[in-house]
Amino acid sequence: MTTVEQTPVSTEDVPPAVKRGTWRRFRREPLGLLALGVLVVLVFVAVAAPLLADYPVGYGDQVLAPPSGEHWFGTDSLGLDVFAEVVWGAQQSLLTAAAASLIAIVVGTLLAVVGAYFRRLDTVVGVVVDLTLSLPILPLMILVAALVGPSTMTIILVIAAFSWPEVTRVVRSQALAVVRMPYVDAARLMTSSPVWIITRHVVPAVLPLILVSVVLTASRAVLSAAGLAFLGLGDPNTWSWGRILYEAQQAGAMSTAWWLPLFPSLAIFLLVLAATMLSTAYNDARNPRHDKGAR
Amino acid sequence: MSLFLFVLKRVGRGVATIWFAVTVTFLLLRLLPGDPALALASTNMTDETRANLLAEFGLDQPLPVQYVKYIGELLQGNLGISFTQNSEVTTVLMDRLPWTLLLAGSSLLVTVILGIPLGVLAASRAGGVWDRIVQVVAVTGQSLFVPSLGILLLYVLGLRLGWFPIGGAYTDGTYGGEWYLSVLAHLVLPCLSLVLAQLGAYVLTMRSTLIDSLGEDYVVLARANGMPARRVLWKHALRNALLPTTTLVGLQLGFVVGGAVLIETVYAYPGIGRGIYEAVTQLDFPVLQGAFLLLAATVVVANMVTDIVYGVLDPRVKAAS
Questions:
Q1: Global pTM?
Q2: CA distance A132 to chain B (A)
Q3: Each residue of B95-144: pLDDT tens digit?
Q4: CA nearest neighbour of B80 among B276, B271, B291
Q5: Strand-pair partners of A75
Q6: Cβ contact, residue pair B299, A134, below 8 Å
Q7: Nearest C-alpha in B relative to A270
Q8: CB-CB contact of A158 with B33 (8 Å)
Q9: How far is it, in rounded angstroms, from Cα A252 to Cα A256?
Q10: Cβ proximity of A257 and A74 under 8 Å
Q11: Which end of chain A is more exposed for a tag (fewer CB within 10 A), N or C?
């Protein structure tokens, strides 16, 4: 979502000075910068996985070896290098999270914004969102993933299918407020095209919320994907952080080899923590009135 | 009278939500590529066997007919026959439901009991050392993958220190009071894992709403009148800050159930979640479907109760509805 700086139309709602102010204030948040740094490192590991480690496949000679100079994170019950699994798992986990959250954000925002503009549609959207959010999502995802059969595509679509209502809920309340603003009425006088008004006025106004949603939805997607993989519904052909835990549980090595659950767990923890802190820091920086001590 | 109407409305909404869950499940089972009736037969069967199987499960009939039949069966409490255990899904799951209810319910209770005072502690010393510590613990718990948390507690408190038993829900061969004690001992670790995972949401909500209500005029006035700070905090400010926390219970119910599914897998706890784990490996679709519906109904009913309690606590809700 680097389009913020490139969207010239957003100047009507968010003047460039304010945006520069956001970045300036953000730079003063040590925790926010640290979180951003952690995320950048994780993305780098995911992209550079082929350079960092060989893809773990087959059998190794040392089974369940603790961490050493040769195997930084130890080896699993098949003798595979856990460091390589975590590195390649980063690629799979981040890919799943990015794809699922992208779909969920696009669908969720579209429904929220279009719904806010066309009130009749909004009633339907609102009811579906309320109903979906009051159901336990993980068991529903499990049912669908088991029916369709585990593959990376299934996991992405299943997570996206049940993540958009949360995005819609957050964006919708803001969009409803924006649609009632006088400048939207003024725009209605100037053009009869709802597409123009929605893309030029409503979407830019909810953009900051969408940016926060991207980060939070992606981190929740990592947790959902890990949850599905932990129950044996991950892609059986690719390493993901959840699958390392699943394999350890299946092999009964969870309690004897502490390094098996530790490293993938740490990776998930770091990612989710960094995402949460980044969105908090961004929110604080965006809203200068926000009293840091009081939040 | 208005209270009666309010309760009626909430019950109606609960029924509508359950109907939604049932319909979604029905459509998923019928429209998704995987054919549940065919999953138990081999892939290289003849067309005749396939047709017989479809007829046996009523899958050759038009969709609306299937839908009406499906709902009729559900209303009689019939969720189908488990593929692998050769018994009714309802029987299989009803044996497991109490354990899940015990685990999820106790964790929710402990979370609320711990979360409210911790939130008050953080809010009353906003910006101080205790506030920082409470916040760090809250955010850390929220960011942990629930099974990771479970494994950590299992490894440290169960295995290394040996304080609590691990695996299962009770000790075999114990009776009476001893049995109850063993149930309690087996509950501690899975329950604590869920508590730590949920606590953050409660503490942070409690903290921010309490800070808001501490800034309200009536609190300032009470202070100005010379009322002791402690009394203002616990009697006046807390009362209003409790309402958003009640809403949170409803919002978090789905998360608790999802967390319970994962934690039961870690601790081999004999609840619905463990049942789901086993059903996934055996591709036992009727059990998965039944488990989802049962958990959904549980969440909806619990949510309904929370909402009604909320309505009774806050007169504005009744008036507005």
A1: 0.85
A2: 8
A3: 899 999 999 999 999 999 999 999 988 888 888 888 888 888 888 888 89
A4: B291
A5: A81
A6: yes
A7: B143
A8: no
A9: 8
A10: yes
A11: N
